[in-house]
Design brief:
Elements (H helix, E strand, L loop, with lengths): L8 H12 L4 H8 L3 H10 L11 H29 L2 H5 L3 H24 L10
Helix pairs in contact: 1-2, 1-4, 2-3, 4-6
Length: 129
């Protein structure tokens, strides 16, 4: 019998955030080194495969809180990167392609989360739910 791997709530939240931001189950599974079946199971368990809202209101609040924590951490990381990128001695030691990839990936993730958050708002900025 296969041994079940336990994943932290933070990992599950990051996986769900990535899925909600539009990444494919395959790419998320690869990125987090989690079997695609597990990612699919989490997605289906929350009713997202059928286009339903994400969980019950309590779960929605919890996921919203976790997404905000994740987004804030991403934005703090971007801020630290920007500060580090301003250090000329450090910059000279880095390859341009490595810096571009690091910055691009982190920026893309933060923007995808912001876009996902804004999709739930109407034109007046209030929740459309």
């Amino acid at each position: 019998m296969a041994k079940r791997t336990q994943y932290s709530e933070e990992t599950k939240a990051a996986v769900m955030a990535a899925l909600l931001s539009g990444q494919s189950q395959y790419s998320v599974a690869q990125e987090y080194k989690i079997p695609q079946g597990t990612v699919n199971s989490w997605w289906r368990r929350e009713g997202l495969a059928e286009g339903q809202r994400f969980g019950n209101p309590e779960q929605q609040d919890e996921i919203g809180g976790l997404l905000m924590i994740y987004l804030c951490a991403s934005l703090r990381t971007l801020t630290a990167q920007v500060e580090l990128f301003g250090d000329k001695s450090w910059l000279k030691q880095q390859g341009a392609s490595e810096l571009a990839v690091l910055h691009g990936v982190q920026t893309d993730k933060a923007i995808r989360l912001l876009e996902a958050m804004s999709q739930g708002k109407g034109e007046d900025g209030n929740s459309s739910a």
